[in-house]
Amino acid sequence: MFIKDNSTTNPMGDPVECGEELGHLASGGDVRNCAVYARLYNPTVGRFEKALSQLEGTEATVAFASGMAALSALLLAVREDGDHVVAVRPMYGSSDHLLASGMLGARVDFCRPDEVGDHIRPETALVFVETPSNPTLDLVDIADVVRQAGKVPVGVDSTFATPVLQRPVEQGATFVLHSGTKFLGGHGDVVAGTISTTEAWARRLRSVRVMTGALLHPLGAYLLHRGLQTLPIRVRTAQASARALAERLSGHPAVARVQYPGLPGGDPKGLLGRQMKGPGSLLSFDLRGGLDAALSLLSRVRLATPAVSLGSCDTLIQHPWSMTHRVVPPETKREMGVTEGLIRLSVGLEDPEDLWADLEQALA
Q1: Measuring CA to CA, how many Å separate 300 from each of 254, 265, 318?
Q2: Rounded Cα–Cα distance for residues 57 and 54 (Å)
Q3: What pLDDT is attached to residue 244?
Q4: CB–CB of 86/228 below 8 Å?
Q5: Which residues 6+ apart lie within 8 Å of 150 measured at CB?
């Protein structure tokens, strides 16, 4: 029984029993009878974790203070199995930066999805992919990556899809990562990260979380748990608007190319319907005028908000070259398809006609 759920610490009954519980939690176990200390466990966080596990179809979820804290914990958790990681580009700029830096001791090979098998070594401990990818909206065949990886566990950043549209464990993935800041919270008022996986892996991840102090704040967990209630309707509503905007943008003379899985040619491997239930609510488009046109567009929009992040009720528009992928070297950005004229649009819940009117006047 928890005596003081709202406290940073919890009164001890039997000191020996609570000491044993502390050791159990520190080694990655789930709570049994005494939460001991707020860095080790919080019941509000635990309730959110159980809810997300049900949505993802996994045994457990471990929630962190941010998406980058979650990825960092995963890299540390797999280290006892090897120090080599295979990572598929493109991906979120900060994830790319962390992996490329070698800061956490991982030696990383970057590759395209069909090259994963060529990079697997005896010391490979993780294959990491993001699908749909940020910011190009490329779709990666998770089942094929799992096949190439063999016995190496595969982690999938599924932030853009959410469990409404994609459940990577059904394709054989071991880890499902989310920046909970995005769709799971859905209102731009919480920063969080999650990893859904097996209980055995969750124990490793909880142990890392305890040692690094990366537990999600309980208020954040409350907001995320609340956000899950509206997740399906938010995702599907924004997806319908994104599809309409993608179609209109693809016919605009100022736009050279629109990248959206729901457009003809946007899903070359036929993953919609097989891996994903829909194309989602993010799209990107290249402007014919390059950098100057991109910056001009951002200065002229009035309804869409120029800002990083995504998955909020608000439509957010940003320039990956100078914002989310600024920390990635220019030559790498170009290899990933991130050009100076690329714009990423996270469609929110505004009326799609109002959004189109805003984009049209900004593109004029």
Answers
A1: 14, 30, 12
A2: 5
A3: 98
A4: no
A5: 117, 120
Which of 194-198, 266-270, 312-316, 324-328 is predicted with the least confidence, judged by mean pLDDT? 324-328
Query: Which residues are identified as catalytic?
Result: 39, 92, 157, 182
Give the residue carrying structure tokens 């993780």. 126
Q: Which two tokens stand for residue 153?
A: 């566990």
Q: Which residue in 85, 81, 138 sits closest to 116, CA to CA?
A: 85
Contact of 89 with 116, CB cutoff 8 Å = no
Domains of the chain: 15-228 (3.40.640.10), 231-363 (3.90.1150.10)
The Cα–Cα gap between 175 and 79 comes to: 15
Q: How far apart are CA 219 and CA 352, in angstroms?
A: 32
pLDDT in tens, 275-289: 999 999 999 999 999
Question: What proportions of the chain, in percent to the nearest 5, are helix, strand and coil?
Answer: 40, 15, 45
pLDDT band at 11 (very low <50, low <70, confident <90, very high): confident
Dihedral sign of CA atoms 277, 278, 280, 286 in order: positive
Per-residue tokens: 249:
């943008």
The confidence score (pLDDT) of residue 5 equals 52
| Residue 331, pLDDT score | 94
**β-sheet with 60-64: strand ranges across:** 60-64, 193-197, 175-179, 154-157, 124-130, 84-88, 107-111
pLDDT in tens, 157-202: 999 999 999 999 999 999 999 999 999 999 999 999 999 999 999 9
